[in-house]
């Protein structure tokens, strides 16, 4: 009996235990889940708070640093940038707390985007810190040379090159010279930051708050890169450019690109600029015809390039026509030699020239867009009217401003001096725009520079300042070079476009070039029928097989063919009447070296932009008879999957196209 009762009790107890167990386990599981969620959620909350606090503070302090730099308070700028770096590091630590979010849809992409953005921020800030250090050194050098601010009562933000003393100027250029290596390091950091920003921009659906922080760096980086890219070659060649320790004389060529020539434009005016220890000591400018006239009608004789003789009736090669080579270094050497020869023949002191600077009206127009209008001899020049107004007063209205035919071009030198003075008066905090304008002009070949000093010239070549031709790393090349021969300033009315096609036939590759010239002008004081001698440059060894002008066949034997600058050129002369259009077409067989490149499954084409030329449309259409794998720049996606590469763009600089098979 007792035993039975005992057994029954044990069974009841077991039932009770079995009934209670699910509740206990459920509670335990709930506690574990809650703890797990807390472990995951709390760090995310902490991380998010640190991220947003850090980025908001970094944005505020970075903007404060920009303002301090504008006010020339580099000490405060440095402190603000130090704070920005700490803020970014705080934001980065916040992202590390949010590691678990990386695997989640959408949220994970936000975390990754933020990572890239903060990395770009670190590089940008470090670069800015280096710039501030250099700028601070410059300011200290100026203050040590002269207590300028107190004496001249000039606010820091109004500091300009014109307000500083000779001693301060020399100290400034020496400081810049000593900063060359650090500027290169700064540029590396800025480019890395730019790449990271570009990578960030490829991420879709980024949170607006993150985008807002990104804009701080996106808006700042391009200007910083432009400034540093311009300062590096200046710092590396400052001895030659500024005549440090020894006076230098530069030949300045004013290249009128409304009368285009192979070397950038007709040399209507030239100048000799004397610089020493960072200061322009003297600028002398005059009509290029003035020196040529001293040797005309004499026994002076230099054989001119045949097109100048054939189509302009000029037997001698005069200084004004010196820039016949489309390579600026080569045309500069010719310019120096012809000028010195004419000075010598005329019995004048022969200038010792250290280098050549070529500038077109295009860069002057862009500078006036920054400085504002300039008035010379009662004439107001601005960005929109500069070229046409200057040409009018040089060619027709010179008597209205007190000039004679002989000295009518003196106004060009006066205008150049006025623009230079306006630049010197420009506050340093406005020079960022100038750097950008000059960088663009260099890239678009509206400013070129040549130095007789080999080390300086190497720097100019490497930085793309020299207008020199380098096709050593390309398989194919196209270069259309025009020369206005006696057609006044008609290039202002000519609308150009270029097409380049490649087709395979019988195992060989043939190139077809279409160069279109549309004359949008009429007969007037600066416009007439266009008279053009054009050279089309192709890979060395190319063979011309056919040519036409607006569908009328041209005998290929009439072309001037030459091997020069590592290429083969085909030259011909034609005219375009006002209101008309002509299309020059050339077909030539490409050399075997191009076939070899295609067979190796990697082909590269370089299209060179003529010195001084306007930007114009360029169409590329390449069909090698082989399916393409990838091309750069990318063609439109609608053209994918065939054997042709098609791309439309504007030729505003030397352009490279790469195709892989």
Overall description:
The strands form four sheets. The protein has a seven-stranded mixed sheet. A seven-stranded mixed sheet has the order 13-12-16-10-9-18-20, with helices on one face. It has three domains: 19-236, no CATH class; 241-463, Aminopeptidase; 476-660, Immunoglobulin-like (Sandwich), CATH 2.60.40. The protein has helices at 2-70, 74-97, 107-145, 148-152, 166-178, 180-201, 208-236, 238-242, 288-292, 306-312, 328-345, 361-371, 386-395, 410-425, 431-443, 454-463, 592-599, and strands spanning 248-256, 266-276, 279-287, 355-359, 374-376, 379-381, 447-451, 476-484, 494-505, 508-519, 530-539, 543-549, 552-553, 560-564, 567-576, 581-589, 602-608, 616-623, 630-632, 644-651, 655-660. It contains 17 helices and 21 strands. The model is unreliable at 1-18 and 144-159 (pLDDT under 50).
- Average pLDDT: 85
The number of helical segments is 17
According to DSSP, the number of beta strands is: 21
Quaternary status of these chains?
A: single chain
In the CATH classification, which architecture of the largest domain applies? 3-Layer(aba) Sandwich
Which fold name fills CATH's third level, the topology of the largest domain? Aminopeptidase
Biggest sheet layout: 7 strands, mixed
- Terminal CA distance reads 97 Å
CATH class of the largest domain: Alpha Beta
Percentage of β-strand residues: 15-25%
Please give the order of strands in the largest beta sheet: 14-15-11-8-17-21-19
Protein name: DUF4012 domain-containing protein
Pfam family, one: DUF4012
Keywords: Membrane, Transmembrane, Transmembrane helix
Transmembrane segments: 27-52
């Amino acid at each position: 009996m007792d035993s039975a009762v005992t057994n029954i009790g044990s069974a009841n107890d077991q039932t009770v235990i079995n009934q209670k167990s699910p509740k206990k386990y459920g509670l335990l599981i709930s506690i574990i889940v809650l703890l797990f969620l807390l472990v995951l959620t709390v760090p995310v909350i902490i991380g998010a708070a640190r991220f947003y606090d850090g980025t908001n503070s970094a944005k505020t302090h970075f903007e404060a640093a920009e303002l301090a730099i504008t006010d020339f308070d580099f000490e405060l700028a440095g402190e603000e940038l130090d704070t920005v770096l700490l803020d970014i590091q705080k934001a980065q630590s916040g992202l590390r707390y949010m590691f678990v979010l990386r695997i989640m849809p959408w949220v994970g992409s936000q975390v990754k985007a933020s990572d890239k953005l903060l990395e770009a921020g670190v590089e940008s800030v470090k670069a800015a810190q280096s710039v501030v250090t250099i700028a601070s050194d410059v300011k200290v050098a100026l203050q040590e040379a002269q207590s300028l601010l107190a004496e001249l009562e000039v606010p820091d933000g109004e500091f300009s090159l014109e307000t500083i003393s000779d001693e301060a100027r020399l100290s400034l250029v020496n400081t810049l010279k000593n900063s060359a290596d650090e500027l290169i390091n700064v540029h590396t950091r800025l480019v890395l930051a730019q790449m990271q920003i570009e990578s960030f921009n490829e991420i879709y659906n980024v949170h607006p708050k993150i985008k807002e922080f990104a804009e701080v760096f996106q808006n700042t980086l391009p200007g910083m890169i432009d400034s540093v890219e311009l300062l590096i070659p200046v710092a590396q060649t400052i001895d030659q450019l500024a005549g440090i320790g020894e006076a230098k004389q530069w030949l300045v060529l004013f290249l009128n690109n409304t009368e285009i020539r192979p070397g950038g434009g007709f040399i209507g005016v030239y100048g000799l600029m004397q610089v020493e220890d960072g200061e322009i000591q003297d600028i002398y400018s005059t009509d290029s015809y003035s020196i040529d006239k001293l040797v005309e009608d004499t026994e002076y004789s230099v054989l001119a390039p045949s097109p100048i003789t054939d189509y302009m009736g000029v037997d001698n090669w005069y200084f004004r026509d010196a820039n016949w080579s489309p390579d600026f270094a080569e045309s500069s050497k010719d310019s120096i030699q012809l000028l010195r020869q004419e000075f010598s023949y005329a019995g004048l002191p022969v200038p010792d020239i250290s280098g050549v600077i070529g500038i077109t009206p295009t860069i002057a127009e862009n500078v006036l867009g920054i400085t504002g209008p300039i008035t010379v001899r009662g004439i107001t020049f601005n960005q929109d009217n500069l070229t046409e107004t200057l040409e009018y007063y040089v060619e027709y209205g010179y008597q209205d401003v007190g000039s004679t035919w002989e000295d009518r071009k003196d106004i060009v030198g006066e205008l150049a001096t006025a623009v230079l003075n306006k630049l010197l008066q420009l506050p340093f905090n406005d020079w960022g725009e100038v750097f950008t304008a000059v960088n663009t002009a260099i890239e678009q070949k509206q400013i070129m520079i040549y130095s007789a000093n080999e080390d300086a010239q190497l720097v100019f070549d490497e930085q793309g300042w020299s207008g020199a031709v380098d096709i050593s790393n390309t398989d194919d090349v196209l270069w259309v070079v025009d020369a206005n021969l006696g057609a006044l300033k008609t290039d202002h009315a000519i609308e150009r476009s270029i097409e380049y096609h490649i087709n395979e036939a019988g195992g060989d590759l043939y190139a077809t070039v279409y160069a279109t010239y549309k004359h949008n002008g009429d007969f007037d004081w600066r416009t007439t029928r266009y008279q053009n001698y054009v050279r089309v440059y192709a890979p060395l060894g190319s063979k011309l097989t056919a040519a036409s002008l607006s569908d009328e066949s041209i005998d290929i034997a009439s072309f001037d063919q030459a091997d020069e600058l590592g290429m083969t050129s085909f030259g011909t002369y034609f005219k375009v009447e006002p209101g008309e259009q002509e299309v020059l077409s050339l077909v030539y067989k490409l050399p075997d070296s191009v076939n070899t490149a295609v067979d190796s499954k990697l082909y590269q084409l370089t299209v060179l932009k003529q010195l001084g030329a306007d930007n114009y449309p360029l169409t590329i259409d390449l069909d090698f008879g082989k399916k393409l794998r990838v091309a750069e720049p990318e063609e439109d996606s609608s053209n994918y999957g065939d054997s042709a590469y098609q791309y439309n763009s504007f030729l505003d600089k030397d352009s490279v196209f790469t195709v892989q098979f």
